[in-house]
Design brief:
This protein has one domain: ABC transporter involved in vitamin B12 uptake, BtuC (Orthogonal Bundle), CATH 1.10.3470. It has 17 helices and two strands. Helix 7 packs across helix 13 and helix 10 crosses helix 11. The longest helix has 27 residues.
Length: 432
Protein backbone atom coordinates (compact mmCIF):
# COMPACT_ATOMS: atom_id res chain seq x y z
CA UNK A 1 0.00 0.00 0.00
CA UNK A 2 1.35 3.41 -0.96
CA UNK A 3 1.94 6.08 1.68
CA UNK A 4 -0.87 8.22 0.25
CA UNK A 5 -3.36 5.36 0.56
CA UNK A 6 -2.13 4.53 4.07
CA UNK A 7 -2.64 8.15 5.14
CA UNK A 8 -6.09 8.28 3.54
CA UNK A 9 -7.14 5.05 5.25
CA UNK A 10 -5.90 6.16 8.67
CA UNK A 11 -7.56 9.59 8.43
CA UNK A 12 -10.91 8.51 7.02
CA UNK A 13 -11.05 5.15 8.82
CA UNK A 14 -12.92 3.78 5.87
CA UNK A 15 -16.16 5.65 6.60
CA UNK A 16 -18.19 8.08 4.54
CA UNK A 17 -18.77 10.22 7.63
CA UNK A 18 -15.10 10.82 8.32
CA UNK A 19 -14.28 11.39 4.65
CA UNK A 20 -16.95 14.10 4.34
CA UNK A 21 -15.90 15.63 7.65
CA UNK A 22 -12.26 15.90 6.61
CA UNK A 23 -13.37 17.27 3.25
CA UNK A 24 -15.18 20.08 5.05
CA UNK A 25 -12.07 20.77 7.15
CA UNK A 26 -10.05 21.22 3.98
CA UNK A 27 -12.81 23.46 2.61
CA UNK A 28 -12.73 25.55 5.80
CA UNK A 29 -8.95 25.94 5.58
CA UNK A 30 -9.23 26.98 1.93
CA UNK A 31 -11.89 29.59 2.72
CA UNK A 32 -9.84 31.01 5.60
CA UNK A 33 -6.72 31.30 3.43
CA UNK A 34 -8.71 32.87 0.60
CA UNK A 35 -10.20 35.57 2.83
CA UNK A 36 -6.82 36.07 4.53
CA UNK A 37 -5.48 37.10 1.12
CA UNK A 38 -8.54 39.08 0.02
CA UNK A 39 -8.74 41.04 3.29
CA UNK A 40 -5.00 41.78 3.50
CA UNK A 41 -4.53 39.67 6.63
CA UNK A 42 -7.57 40.86 8.60
CA UNK A 43 -9.25 37.43 8.75
CA UNK A 44 -6.62 35.89 11.04
CA UNK A 45 -6.09 39.08 13.01
CA UNK A 46 -6.40 38.54 16.78
CA UNK A 47 -9.30 40.96 17.17
CA UNK A 48 -11.21 39.40 14.29
CA UNK A 49 -10.74 35.83 15.53
CA UNK A 50 -11.92 36.80 19.01
CA UNK A 51 -14.93 38.59 17.51
CA UNK A 52 -15.67 35.61 15.25
CA UNK A 53 -15.93 33.18 18.18
CA UNK A 54 -17.91 35.64 20.28
CA UNK A 55 -20.37 36.45 17.48
CA UNK A 56 -21.09 32.92 16.24
CA UNK A 57 -20.79 30.74 19.34
CA UNK A 58 -24.56 30.74 19.87
CA UNK A 59 -25.17 29.46 16.33
CA UNK A 60 -22.64 26.66 16.87
CA UNK A 61 -24.40 25.73 20.12
CA UNK A 62 -27.66 25.50 18.18
CA UNK A 63 -25.90 23.32 15.58
CA UNK A 64 -25.02 20.77 18.29
CA UNK A 65 -28.66 20.25 19.19
CA UNK A 66 -29.84 20.46 15.59
CA UNK A 67 -27.42 17.70 14.60
CA UNK A 68 -29.10 15.31 17.02
CA UNK A 69 -32.57 16.35 15.86
CA UNK A 70 -31.68 15.87 12.20
CA UNK A 71 -29.90 12.55 12.75
CA UNK A 72 -33.02 11.28 14.54
CA UNK A 73 -35.04 12.09 11.41
CA UNK A 74 -36.64 15.40 12.38
CA UNK A 75 -36.23 19.13 11.86
CA UNK A 76 -36.72 22.03 14.30
CA UNK A 77 -37.85 25.38 12.93
CA UNK A 78 -38.59 26.93 16.31
CA UNK A 79 -35.11 27.33 17.82
CA UNK A 80 -34.81 31.05 17.03
CA UNK A 81 -38.20 31.80 18.57
CA UNK A 82 -37.45 29.63 21.60
CA UNK A 83 -34.16 31.47 22.13
CA UNK A 84 -35.97 34.81 21.82
CA UNK A 85 -38.73 34.03 24.30
CA UNK A 86 -36.27 32.63 26.87
CA UNK A 87 -34.10 35.72 26.44
CA UNK A 88 -36.99 38.09 27.08
CA UNK A 89 -38.21 36.11 30.10
CA UNK A 90 -34.77 36.05 31.70
CA UNK A 91 -34.18 39.76 31.04
CA UNK A 92 -37.59 40.69 32.44
CA UNK A 93 -37.29 38.71 35.69
CA UNK A 94 -33.86 40.19 36.35
CA UNK A 95 -35.11 43.71 35.72
CA UNK A 96 -38.53 43.63 37.40
CA UNK A 97 -38.01 41.04 40.15
CA UNK A 98 -34.31 41.64 40.82
CA UNK A 99 -33.54 37.94 40.41
CA UNK A 100 -29.83 37.13 40.71
CA UNK A 101 -28.33 36.39 37.33
CA UNK A 102 -27.13 32.82 38.16
CA UNK A 103 -30.70 31.93 39.17
CA UNK A 104 -31.98 33.64 36.04
CA UNK A 105 -29.77 31.35 33.92
CA UNK A 106 -31.19 28.30 35.70
CA UNK A 107 -34.71 29.65 35.14
CA UNK A 108 -33.96 30.14 31.44
CA UNK A 109 -32.77 26.54 31.08
CA UNK A 110 -35.89 25.30 32.87
CA UNK A 111 -38.13 27.33 30.56
CA UNK A 112 -36.28 25.82 27.59
CA UNK A 113 -36.83 22.33 29.03
CA UNK A 114 -40.57 22.97 29.46
CA UNK A 115 -40.85 24.20 25.88
CA UNK A 116 -38.86 21.20 24.63
CA UNK A 117 -41.09 18.82 26.62
CA UNK A 118 -44.16 20.49 25.07
CA UNK A 119 -42.90 20.06 21.53
CA UNK A 120 -41.45 16.61 22.23
CA UNK A 121 -44.83 15.44 23.51
CA UNK A 122 -46.55 16.32 20.25
CA UNK A 123 -43.80 14.75 18.16
CA UNK A 124 -43.17 11.57 20.15
CA UNK A 125 -46.49 10.70 21.74
CA UNK A 126 -49.11 12.28 19.48
CA UNK A 127 -47.25 11.59 16.23
CA UNK A 128 -47.42 15.06 14.68
CA UNK A 129 -44.43 15.57 12.33
CA UNK A 130 -41.71 17.69 13.92
CA UNK A 131 -41.78 20.01 10.91
CA UNK A 132 -45.39 20.97 11.72
CA UNK A 133 -44.94 21.08 15.50
CA UNK A 134 -41.91 23.36 15.34
CA UNK A 135 -43.43 25.52 12.62
CA UNK A 136 -46.34 26.12 15.00
CA UNK A 137 -43.81 26.67 17.78
CA UNK A 138 -41.95 29.23 15.70
CA UNK A 139 -45.14 31.31 15.42
CA UNK A 140 -46.30 30.67 18.98
CA UNK A 141 -43.05 31.58 20.75
CA UNK A 142 -42.29 34.51 18.47
CA UNK A 143 -45.67 35.95 19.38
CA UNK A 144 -45.03 35.18 23.04
CA UNK A 145 -41.74 37.08 22.85
CA UNK A 146 -43.56 40.13 21.47
CA UNK A 147 -46.33 39.84 24.07
CA UNK A 148 -44.10 39.44 27.14
CA UNK A 149 -41.69 42.19 26.14
CA UNK A 150 -44.34 44.49 24.65
CA UNK A 151 -41.95 44.79 21.65
CA UNK A 152 -39.49 46.68 23.86
CA UNK A 153 -35.75 46.25 24.46
CA UNK A 154 -34.93 45.13 28.02
CA UNK A 155 -31.34 45.55 29.34
CA UNK A 156 -29.59 42.90 31.45
CA UNK A 157 -27.20 43.40 34.42
CA UNK A 158 -23.42 43.47 34.15
CA UNK A 159 -22.79 40.08 35.77
CA UNK A 160 -25.09 38.30 33.34
CA UNK A 161 -23.23 39.80 30.37
CA UNK A 162 -20.11 37.77 31.20
CA UNK A 163 -21.49 34.58 29.61
CA UNK A 164 -21.79 36.33 26.25
CA UNK A 165 -19.33 39.21 26.31
CA UNK A 166 -16.77 38.08 28.90
CA UNK A 167 -13.22 36.78 28.38
CA UNK A 168 -10.72 34.70 30.30
CA UNK A 169 -9.25 37.01 32.99
CA UNK A 170 -5.77 38.50 33.10
CA UNK A 171 -3.87 36.62 35.82
CA UNK A 172 -0.31 35.58 36.52
CA UNK A 173 3.00 37.14 35.45
CA UNK A 174 3.29 39.60 32.58
CA UNK A 175 4.19 37.39 29.59
CA UNK A 176 2.78 39.68 26.93
CA UNK A 177 -0.05 37.20 26.46
CA UNK A 178 -3.21 36.21 28.32
CA UNK A 179 -1.95 33.43 30.60
CA UNK A 180 -5.23 31.47 31.03
CA UNK A 181 -5.57 31.33 27.23
CA UNK A 182 -2.02 29.99 26.94
CA UNK A 183 -2.83 27.36 29.57
CA UNK A 184 -6.02 26.42 27.73
CA UNK A 185 -4.09 25.96 24.49
CA UNK A 186 -1.50 23.81 26.29
CA UNK A 187 -4.22 21.56 27.70
CA UNK A 188 -5.75 21.10 24.26
CA UNK A 189 -2.32 20.18 22.83
CA UNK A 190 -1.82 17.58 25.56
CA UNK A 191 -5.30 16.18 24.87
CA UNK A 192 -4.46 15.75 21.15
CA UNK A 193 -1.28 13.81 21.97
CA UNK A 194 -3.02 11.61 24.57
CA UNK A 195 -5.87 10.87 22.18
CA UNK A 196 -3.51 9.63 19.48
CA UNK A 197 -1.50 7.59 21.99
CA UNK A 198 -4.67 5.94 23.34
CA UNK A 199 -5.89 5.21 19.81
CA UNK A 200 -2.69 3.33 18.99
CA UNK A 201 -2.77 1.47 22.30
CA UNK A 202 -6.39 0.44 21.81
CA UNK A 203 -5.68 -0.94 18.35
CA UNK A 204 -2.78 -2.98 19.71
CA UNK A 205 -4.93 -4.40 22.51
CA UNK A 206 -7.60 -5.39 19.99
CA UNK A 207 -4.97 -7.02 17.75
CA UNK A 208 -6.00 -4.62 14.98
CA UNK A 209 -3.69 -3.16 12.36
CA UNK A 210 -1.73 -0.21 13.78
CA UNK A 211 -0.90 2.49 11.26
CA UNK A 212 2.79 3.46 10.85
CA UNK A 213 4.31 5.94 13.29
CA UNK A 214 4.83 8.57 10.58
CA UNK A 215 1.06 8.72 10.11
CA UNK A 216 0.54 9.27 13.84
CA UNK A 217 3.11 12.05 13.71
CA UNK A 218 1.10 13.77 10.96
CA UNK A 219 -2.15 13.27 12.90
CA UNK A 220 -0.56 14.99 15.91
CA UNK A 221 1.71 17.64 14.38
CA UNK A 222 -0.85 19.21 12.03
CA UNK A 223 -3.48 19.85 14.77
CA UNK A 224 -0.75 21.07 17.13
CA UNK A 225 0.40 23.68 14.61
CA UNK A 226 -3.18 24.95 14.24
CA UNK A 227 -3.78 24.96 18.00
CA UNK A 228 -0.54 26.80 18.81
CA UNK A 229 -1.22 29.39 16.12
CA UNK A 230 -4.79 29.97 17.33
CA UNK A 231 -3.69 30.08 20.98
CA UNK A 232 -1.12 32.81 20.30
CA UNK A 233 -3.68 34.79 18.32
CA UNK A 234 -6.34 34.62 21.01
CA UNK A 235 -3.84 35.24 23.82
CA UNK A 236 -2.12 38.10 22.01
CA UNK A 237 -5.09 40.38 21.45
CA UNK A 238 -5.48 43.80 23.00
CA UNK A 239 -5.41 43.94 26.80
CA UNK A 240 -8.78 43.06 28.28
CA UNK A 241 -9.65 40.54 25.58
CA UNK A 242 -8.73 36.87 25.25
CA UNK A 243 -10.60 33.67 24.50
CA UNK A 244 -14.35 34.38 24.99
CA UNK A 245 -16.31 32.74 27.81
CA UNK A 246 -18.95 31.79 25.24
CA UNK A 247 -16.23 29.87 23.39
CA UNK A 248 -15.41 27.98 26.60
CA UNK A 249 -19.09 27.05 26.98
CA UNK A 250 -19.17 25.91 23.36
CA UNK A 251 -16.02 23.81 23.79
CA UNK A 252 -17.39 22.08 26.89
CA UNK A 253 -20.63 21.28 25.07
CA UNK A 254 -18.74 19.87 22.06
CA UNK A 255 -16.76 17.52 24.33
CA UNK A 256 -19.84 16.39 26.28
CA UNK A 257 -22.09 15.82 23.28
CA UNK A 258 -19.34 14.17 21.23
CA UNK A 259 -18.91 11.68 24.06
CA UNK A 260 -22.67 11.14 24.32
CA UNK A 261 -23.15 10.49 20.60
CA UNK A 262 -20.06 8.31 20.21
CA UNK A 263 -19.77 6.41 23.47
CA UNK A 264 -23.19 5.98 25.07
CA UNK A 265 -26.15 3.73 24.36
CA UNK A 266 -28.46 6.75 24.21
CA UNK A 267 -26.34 8.37 21.54
CA UNK A 268 -26.27 5.17 19.48
CA UNK A 269 -30.03 4.93 19.78
CA UNK A 270 -30.39 8.33 18.10
CA UNK A 271 -28.38 7.11 15.11
CA UNK A 272 -30.32 3.86 15.04
CA UNK A 273 -33.66 5.70 14.96
CA UNK A 274 -32.43 7.95 12.17
CA UNK A 275 -31.13 4.99 10.18
CA UNK A 276 -34.26 2.84 10.41
CA UNK A 277 -36.85 3.72 13.03
CA UNK A 278 -38.87 0.54 12.62
CA UNK A 279 -35.85 -1.74 12.88
CA UNK A 280 -34.57 0.19 15.88
CA UNK A 281 -37.89 -0.19 17.67
CA UNK A 282 -37.95 -3.92 16.98
CA UNK A 283 -34.42 -4.10 18.40
CA UNK A 284 -35.59 -2.69 21.73
CA UNK A 285 -34.93 1.02 21.22
CA UNK A 286 -37.62 3.12 22.90
CA UNK A 287 -38.55 5.19 19.89
CA UNK A 288 -40.88 7.64 21.64
CA UNK A 289 -38.41 8.38 24.40
CA UNK A 290 -35.60 9.07 21.92
CA UNK A 291 -37.77 11.44 19.89
CA UNK A 292 -38.98 13.18 23.04
CA UNK A 293 -35.47 13.68 24.42
CA UNK A 294 -33.91 15.04 21.22
CA UNK A 295 -36.65 17.68 20.97
CA UNK A 296 -36.30 18.56 24.65
CA UNK A 297 -32.51 18.78 24.37
CA UNK A 298 -32.78 21.06 21.34
CA UNK A 299 -34.93 23.58 23.20
CA UNK A 300 -32.60 23.59 26.22
CA UNK A 301 -29.64 24.39 23.97
CA UNK A 302 -31.74 27.03 22.19
CA UNK A 303 -32.46 28.60 25.59
CA UNK A 304 -28.73 28.66 26.39
CA UNK A 305 -27.91 30.15 22.98
CA UNK A 306 -30.57 32.82 23.47
CA UNK A 307 -29.18 33.83 26.85
CA UNK A 308 -25.62 34.01 25.48
CA UNK A 309 -26.81 36.27 22.66
CA UNK A 310 -28.74 38.52 25.05
CA UNK A 311 -25.70 38.71 27.34
CA UNK A 312 -23.46 39.72 24.44
CA UNK A 313 -26.00 42.29 23.21
CA UNK A 314 -26.52 43.60 26.78
CA UNK A 315 -30.28 43.56 26.16
CA UNK A 316 -33.14 41.40 24.90
CA UNK A 317 -35.16 42.74 22.00
CA UNK A 318 -38.08 41.81 19.73
CA UNK A 319 -35.84 40.91 16.78
CA UNK A 320 -33.70 38.36 18.65
CA UNK A 321 -33.49 34.90 17.11
CA UNK A 322 -34.64 35.78 13.60
CA UNK A 323 -33.50 33.13 11.10
CA UNK A 324 -31.28 31.38 13.64
CA UNK A 325 -32.88 28.06 12.75
CA UNK A 326 -31.79 28.49 9.14
CA UNK A 327 -28.17 29.10 10.14
CA UNK A 328 -28.18 26.08 12.46
CA UNK A 329 -29.74 23.79 9.86
CA UNK A 330 -27.31 25.03 7.21
CA UNK A 331 -24.36 24.34 9.54
CA UNK A 332 -25.50 20.76 10.09
CA UNK A 333 -26.16 20.06 6.41
CA UNK A 334 -22.91 21.64 5.25
CA UNK A 335 -21.11 19.65 7.97
CA UNK A 336 -22.07 16.43 6.22
CA UNK A 337 -25.09 15.27 8.24
CA UNK A 338 -28.00 13.44 6.69
CA UNK A 339 -31.29 12.35 8.20
CA UNK A 340 -31.56 9.01 6.46
CA UNK A 341 -29.11 6.44 7.74
CA UNK A 342 -28.16 8.30 10.92
CA UNK A 343 -25.11 9.96 9.40
CA UNK A 344 -23.43 12.97 11.01
CA UNK A 345 -21.09 14.09 13.77
CA UNK A 346 -20.96 16.91 16.31
CA UNK A 347 -17.51 17.96 15.09
CA UNK A 348 -18.72 17.94 11.48
CA UNK A 349 -21.57 20.29 12.35
CA UNK A 350 -19.15 22.62 14.15
CA UNK A 351 -16.94 22.67 11.06
CA UNK A 352 -19.99 23.38 8.89
CA UNK A 353 -20.97 26.22 11.19
CA UNK A 354 -17.44 27.64 11.05
CA UNK A 355 -17.56 27.53 7.25
CA UNK A 356 -20.69 29.70 7.29
CA UNK A 357 -19.26 31.96 10.01
CA UNK A 358 -15.95 32.55 8.19
CA UNK A 359 -17.81 33.09 4.93
CA UNK A 360 -20.10 35.65 6.55
CA UNK A 361 -17.26 37.36 8.41
CA UNK A 362 -14.93 37.47 5.40
CA UNK A 363 -17.56 38.98 3.12
CA UNK A 364 -18.33 41.64 5.73
CA UNK A 365 -14.63 42.51 6.05
CA UNK A 366 -14.57 42.98 2.28
CA UNK A 367 -17.50 45.37 2.50
CA UNK A 368 -19.94 43.10 0.66
CA UNK A 369 -23.57 44.13 1.26
CA UNK A 370 -25.93 41.99 3.31
CA UNK A 371 -28.01 41.28 0.21
CA UNK A 372 -25.12 39.63 -1.61
CA UNK A 373 -23.99 37.86 1.57
CA UNK A 374 -27.41 36.22 1.82
CA UNK A 375 -27.30 35.15 -1.82
CA UNK A 376 -23.84 33.63 -1.46
CA UNK A 377 -24.82 31.76 1.71
CA UNK A 378 -27.89 30.43 -0.09
CA UNK A 379 -25.77 29.14 -2.95
CA UNK A 380 -23.38 27.44 -0.53
CA UNK A 381 -26.29 25.65 1.15
CA UNK A 382 -27.75 24.70 -2.24
CA UNK A 383 -24.45 23.17 -3.32
CA UNK A 384 -24.25 21.18 -0.08
CA UNK A 385 -27.74 19.78 -0.57
CA UNK A 386 -27.03 19.13 -4.26
CA UNK A 387 -24.11 16.98 -3.14
CA UNK A 388 -26.51 15.04 -0.91
CA UNK A 389 -28.91 14.51 -3.83
CA UNK A 390 -25.97 13.27 -5.89
CA UNK A 391 -25.16 10.79 -3.13
CA UNK A 392 -28.80 9.69 -3.06
CA UNK A 393 -28.77 8.97 -6.77
CA UNK A 394 -25.71 6.80 -6.22
CA UNK A 395 -27.43 4.89 -3.43
CA UNK A 396 -25.83 6.72 -0.49
CA UNK A 397 -27.43 8.68 2.35
CA UNK A 398 -29.80 11.53 1.48
CA UNK A 399 -31.11 14.48 3.45
CA UNK A 400 -33.86 15.44 0.98
CA UNK A 401 -35.25 11.94 0.69
CA UNK A 402 -35.54 11.69 4.46
CA UNK A 403 -37.17 15.11 4.87
CA UNK A 404 -39.94 13.91 2.58
CA UNK A 405 -40.22 10.53 4.30
CA UNK A 406 -42.91 11.50 6.86
CA UNK A 407 -45.19 12.76 4.07
CA UNK A 408 -45.02 9.63 1.91
CA UNK A 409 -47.60 6.83 2.08
CA UNK A 410 -46.24 3.50 3.24
CA UNK A 411 -45.10 1.41 0.30
CA UNK A 412 -46.02 -2.29 0.08
CA UNK A 413 -43.37 -4.75 1.17
CA UNK A 414 -40.89 -5.62 -1.53
CA UNK A 415 -41.02 -9.14 -2.88
CA UNK A 416 -37.43 -9.18 -4.08
CA UNK A 417 -34.14 -8.90 -2.29
CA UNK A 418 -31.92 -5.83 -2.85
CA UNK A 419 -29.62 -7.87 -5.04
CA UNK A 420 -32.50 -9.18 -7.18
CA UNK A 421 -33.97 -5.72 -7.68
CA UNK A 422 -30.63 -4.22 -8.65
CA UNK A 423 -30.43 -1.98 -5.58
CA UNK A 424 -27.61 -1.61 -3.13
CA UNK A 425 -28.05 -3.29 0.25
CA UNK A 426 -28.92 -1.02 3.19
CA UNK A 427 -26.01 0.64 4.89
CA UNK A 428 -25.31 0.64 8.60
CA UNK A 429 -25.80 4.03 10.34
CA UNK A 430 -22.52 5.73 11.08
CA UNK A 431 -21.81 7.78 14.15
CA UNK A 432 -18.52 9.47 14.28
Amino acid sequence: MSRVKELQKSLFAGTTSNARQFGMIFTLVAIVLLFQILTDGLTLNSSNLISLVSQYSYILILAIGMLMVIVAGHIDLSVGSVAAVVGIIVAKVMQEYDLAWPLAIVLGLLVGAVIGAWQGFWVAYVGVPAFIVTLAGMLLFRGMNQYIGSANTIPVPEGFREIGAGFLPEVGPDTGYNNPTLLLGLLVCVAVVIREWRARRTRREMAAEVWPMWISVIRVVVPLIVIVFATLRFAGGRVGTSFPISGIILGVLVVIYSFITRNTAGGRHIYAVGGNARAAELSGVKLKRVNFLVMLNMSVLAALAGMIFVARSAASGPQDGLNWELDAIAAVFIGGAAVSGGLGTISGSIVGGLVMAVLNNGLQLMGVGIDRVQMIKGLVLLLAVALDVYNKNRGHFSIIGSLMRPFRRAAPAATTTPIESGQEPAKTPVAG
